């Protein structure tokens, strides 16, 4: 009986998440524009074949993420983009595959270039010996890839390297960004770096500076690394356009 109850609870949860995801993607893609009053409760229940309870849970979740706003006698309206919580991991996952998601990724990169050098400073200052050891081990796995080790996954290893920098900051507001970073790497893999365009030497400079506690060197190395990554992305885009033009 307990197992059956658990299964039913899980099914109810997945139903309201399915509805929330589909509505969110309509909003994020622009299909349901800002300011629009979304269809009423009865219509949405019929459309998704769900109970009013499941629908209300979905709407409540989207209200919390800043996408919707429910008002008595007015209905539920799509909120302005300034209220959307783009640092919500679930919301970022739901953007996967949307045609207009690329701009969000580039906006994220601009934010990352602004804060990751500061995260490197804090990691150099506050990182524990164990955290710095883990960063070194990840760096060694990256270098093994350069030497042709097929057992190491580049995307996962590169993501983990940068994620560990944020975890090592010891800052309550930087640490959650590690999870956002993981989501961005996995949701937008084609935009992430690959072994062919990764500057391992710059990664090593960041690692060594953090391990040695050299805050100035950590910041400068991080700026160089992120700037180099940006340059490679622009070069890749230019090459793609050139091929398209013949």
Range of helix content: 55-70%
**Helix- and strand-based class?**
mainly alpha
User: How many strand units?
Assistant: 2
What is the 3D form? elongated
Helices and strands, in order, run as HHHEEHHHHHHH
* Main beta sheet: 2 strands, antiparallel
The N- and C-terminal alpha carbons lie at a distance of 66 Å
**Rg result:** 22 Å
* Global mean pLDDT: 86
- Poorly predicted sequence stretches spanning 5 or more consecutive residues: 1-8, 231-246
H/I helix tally: 10
Q: How are the strands of the largest sheet arranged?
A: 1-2
Q: What portion of the residues fall into strands of 2 or more residues?
A: under 5%
Polypeptide structure, described:
- The protein is mainly α and 246 residues long.
- Helix content is 69%, strand content 3%.
- The protein is built from 10 helices and 2 strands, in the order H-H-H-E-E-H-H-H-H-H-H-H.
- A two-stranded antiparallel ribbon has the order 1-2.
- Helix 9 runs antiparallel to helix 10.
- The longest helix has 31 residues.
- It is elongated and about 60 Å long.
Topology:
Layout: H1 2-28, H2 41-48, H3 52-64, E1 68-71, E2 75-78, H4 89-94, H5 101-126, H6 129-146, H7 154-167, H8 175-187, H9 200-212, H10 215-245
Antiparallel strand pairs: 1-2
């Amino acid at each position: 009986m307990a197992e059956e109850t658990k299964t039913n609870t899980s099914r109810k949860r997945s139903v309201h998440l399915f509805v929330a995801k589909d509505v969110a993607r309509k909003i994020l893609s622009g299909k349901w524009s800002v300011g629009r009053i979304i269809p009423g409760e009865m219509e949405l229940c019929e459309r998704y074949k769900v109970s009013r309870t499941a629908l209300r849970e979905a709407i409540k979740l989207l209200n919390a993420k800043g996408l919707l706003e429910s008002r008595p006698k007015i209905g539920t309206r799509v909120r302005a983009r300034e209220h959307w919580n783009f640092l919500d991991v679930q919301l970022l996952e739901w953007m996967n595959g949307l045609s207009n998601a690329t701009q969000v990724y580039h906006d994220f990169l601009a934010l990352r270039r602004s804060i990751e050098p500061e995260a490197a400073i804090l990691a150099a200052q506050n990182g524990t010996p164990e955290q710095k050891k883990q960063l070194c081990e990840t760096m060694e796995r990256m270098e093994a890839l350069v030497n042709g080790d097929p057992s190491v996954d580049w995307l996962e290893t590169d993501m983990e390297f940068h994620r560990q920098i944020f975890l090592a900051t010891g800052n309550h507001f930087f640490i959650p960004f590690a999870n956002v970073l993981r989501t961005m790497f996995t949701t937008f893999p084609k935009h992430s770096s690959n072994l062919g365009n990764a500057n391992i030497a710059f990664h090593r400079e960041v690692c060594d500076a953090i391990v040695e506690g050299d805050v100035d060197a950590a910041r400068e190395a991080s700026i160089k690394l992120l700037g180099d990554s940006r340059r490679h992305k622009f070069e890749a885009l230019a090459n793609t356009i050139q091929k398209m033009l013949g």
